[in-house]
Structure formats: C-alpha cells, structure tokens
C-alpha cells in the first residue's frame, strides 16, 4: 500500500531531506513550502524520480486558518496524508529581556501551534483508518534548555510534551507520535555562525561534527515505518552525543 506523507518545511534543509527519503522508500509526498517555491519544485522533481507522486502545497502554517486551507486543498486533490512530518521552523538568538511579543508569537506559532493544528486536522482520518504516523522535529534545546535561546527551547519543549500527550491519546487507534530532538545539523539555521563558532560547537559534540539532514531523514523514515509500530511518545535524541 502506498502511503502519503505531508512534510512541512520541505523546500530545504531537513524537510527536503525527509521528503526525498520518504519518496525513495515508496511514499507519495506532499511538499509544503511558504516562500521558496523554486527550491520546493526542485525537491518535487527529485521525489518524482523514484516513481512517486509529489504535490507542492504553499501554506502559511502560523495560523489555524492557513492549515485548514492546506487541508481543503489536499481534499480537493484527493490526498489525505497518513504520515505527517513537521519540519518547518525558525530560530532566534537573544536573551529573554530582548524578546518582544512578535518574536515569542512567531516561534510558538510555527513550532507548537502548527503541531497542534496539524494534529487536530489530520489525526481524525488516521484514527478512523486505524493507522497513522506523526513525527515532529524537535531540538536538543527542548530537552536541556539553552541560554540565549529560551524562547526556541520553550517552543520545542512544548512540542515534546505535546508529542507525549497525543501519543497517549491515539495509541489505541494504531497512530504513533514521536519527536526527533536534533542537535546541531548542517542547515541554513546555522548559517549565521562563523567558522570559529561552528568549530567551537563541534568541539562540544562527542562525535566531533555537525549532523547531516540525511541522518535526520533516516531516523524519520524508520519512525514512520512498520518496523517502528511499537515506538510512540518518544523524544529521540539525534545529536552526536551532545546530551551525554
């Protein structure tokens, strides 16, 4: 049976790697993007090379209305995802007293509010079909906290708690919910760091290097597979040993 996977933030970075990996594994993929249409189109073309369908969907995930519009578009296209991977996100560096309401709202909306609405809108069909997978991209900072990134850490910590709670709600229906607490991964999110700063980050990681988007994608692929059907409510670290 061919599964349909919705991947948010799939035009670049981890989301793009996840979309490509799931397509390689036989899934039809819905590639969500917000502003990078050309990049999303490239990802779609890559996915189609595996012989699968790849549908592009632009949506503003920061509001419930935006996600509801995405769901309506998918229904018109005859696509109901039974896998949802939430990779869309932004970061912010700054001490708490430097954070204004706009920044707080932006981070909470894209990370936590989006996880809520994706679940609210797409879980019912999974429960009805008695099969489904949610994977939320979290962060090591959502587990251990981070000075200078308290808002980002709070948003990801909320995602972790939401993951555990919804896993309990849907377990009896055969729907699993997990999160990947990624460490420092070589994506645009680290582009603001200098070479010396990146070297300092790597020196704190036992494996001595940044993670690769493809490594995150491989873990996601496992979590949405039948092999992981007894794994739910977990926040799995993928951080090169950073939490040790």
Order of helices and strands: EHEHEHEHEHHEHHE
What is the 3D form?
globular
Q: How many strands appear in the DSSP assignment?
A: 7
Overall mean pLDDT? 93
Biggest sheet, spatial arrangement of strands: 3-2-1-4-5-6-7
Helix content range: 40-55%
The third-level CATH topology is Rossmann fold
> How far is the N terminus from the C terminus?
40 Å
Taken together, the total number of domains comes to 1
Number of helices: 8
Tell me the structural class: alpha/beta
Task: Set out the fold topology.
Layout: E1 4-8, H1 13-24, E2 28-33, H2 37-48, E3 54-58, H3 64-76, E4 83-86, H4 101-129, E5 132-139, H5 141-144, H6 150-170, E6 175-182, H7 195-203, H8 213-223, E7 235-238
Parallel strand pairs: 1-2, 1-4, 2-3, 4-5, 5-6, 6-7
InterPro entries: KR_dom (IPR057326), NAD(P)-bd_dom_sf (IPR036291), Sc_DH/Rdtase_CS (IPR020904), SDR (IPR050259), SDR_fam (IPR002347)
Domain Ketoreductase: 3-216
Protein name: 3-ketoacyl-ACP reductase
Quick overview:
The chain has 244 residues and is an alpha/beta fold. The chain contains eight helices and seven strands, in the order E-H-E-H-E-H-E-H-E-H-H-E-H-H-E. Helix 2 (37-48) links the parallel strand 2 (28-33) and strand 3 (54-58).
